[in-house]
Amino acid sequence: MAELLTDLQLNYGYLIRPLIVGTLVSIVCSVIGCFIVLRRMSFLADAIAHSMLAGVIGGYLLMKVFYQQDSNLTAMLVGAILSGILTVAMVGFVTKFSRIKQDTAIGIMYTGIFAFAAFFISLESISQYIQIDIYHFIIGDVMAVDNSELWLLAIVTSIVLSVVILFYRPLQLTTFDPIMAAAIGIPVMAVEYLLTACTSLVVVSGVQIAGVILVVALIITPAATAYLLTDRLDRMIMASALVGGTGFWLGFVVAVFLGSEPGATIVVVMTAIFLGSLAGAPKYGLIADWIRKRNTVPQEMMEDVLGCVLRARGKSVPVTEVLKHIKKPALLVRKSVSMLERQGLIDVDDENVLLTDDGRFQAKRLVRAHRLWETYLARTGTPEEEIHDKAHQLEHLSDDSTVKYLDDKLGHPVTDPHGSIIPNDPELILGKDLLLSVLRKGNRATIVAITVKSEIMDLADLNVGDEVTIGPRSGEGKLWTVITAGGKTLSLTHDQADAVVVRLVSSP
User: Fold this and answer.
1) Is the pLDDT of residue 313 over 80?
2) Which 3 state secondary structure label does DSSP give 479?
3) The CA-based dihedral angle spanning residues 279, 282, 285, 289, taken in that order and rounded to the nearest 10 degrees
4) 128 confidence band (pLDDT: 50, 70, 90)
5) Hey, which residues does 128 pair with through a beta bridge?
6) Which of 17, 80, 147, 399 shows the greatest Cβ crowding within 10 Å of its Cβ?
7) Would residue 205 be called left, alpha or beta, if left means φ above 0 and alpha means ψ between -120 and 50 degrees?
8) Which is the CATH superfamily of the domain at 26-290?
9) Looking at domain 433-506, which CATH architecture does it have?
């Protein structure tokens, strides 16, 4: 074992420092990337990565001109952070005080700051003081990290991870609900700038591995991969760190054996991991989504099956008849039948389908919605040949509240334009309080309240506690016939019928 360790140290000892640096940076980039992805700030992270060139050059020149030092990572780190914060502040300023949107402002500001840095470094009077390796700044060089940079990057990692742990709750709240966070006293803008500072730190760290161009991949790709795998932030952070660390090690090993550029190879491996997760994630992957869609039965088709069986008027219907009526693939129709059976809406016995009580209720609700929409479309002048198809589409989009509103606006019609009876309101059940306007011929009810005084009706004719019977509609369906217990017949308008609250006693 001792000889093996000695051989590893002699032959591969030069890899220890890059592996430590890469592991630390990959993990911290992955962790902070979770908040970047959830806040949809990926483009802003890219902006910070590019604009930091100006900060790095500023810090380098400051140490070179005033302190005669060739390189000072701390000064360049501080310059990069200030540059990142300046970029965010300028983007916020432009967005707030002009009609320019945030994405446009980011595109303008980060390219402008990056171009300013490139312009500055190209000046002959300035370039003589600058000895930064721009090539490795662009593509990264993890193999060139020395001990001082290693310690500084370890400190950066400790600071950022400590911030995430200590301020986890404010970061979580401002990420998912900034309005609520502000309401309970969390300084949202301060948290935003804290996250920006941390992002700048990890960007500077990531530049050592992948360079300014690919550093965004170290932040975004592991977090996006974890986002496909879990729904909880704490698990997402752990999964992202695991993906980031694993991607770095695999990419670094591949780069060593192939002799390729480590930064680019690491990003390629992380991208491959993301694509694998995109395809195979158990809940949000493409394969899972395809299986889910394949097994999903359209609600519209299930409702069509209910309507088809309802026409049998209480008799069972062979599945073959359902297949003839619904012009859809047979496999999909049979899936609809199986789904309805599992939901307890139909009974299937030897290829014969029969509605249950719940199924009959749902089917009547659909027929009621269809015929009400046909009535509405006919009154709005829709061509007769189009009424049925449009009503068929609308019936599947209507909830109970929409159907009730439509029924009330139409004056509670009894028949549709074809003369077919519109089923009763599903709420028309014994012992329930409802408006007299929803009652039909033959219903008996007891008056429990009159919501409008004598300006609309004579209280001497209708009183609370009276039992009334509903007669046939008159006046082209616009007048309700009410027969009192004393045998007196009254005709009420829609508004008058809406003013009387009754309790249903019996139905014909």
Assistant:
1) no
2) strand
3) 120
4) low
5) none
6) 80
7) alpha
8) ABC transporter involved in vitamin B12 uptake, BtuC (1.10.3470.10)
9) Roll (2.30)
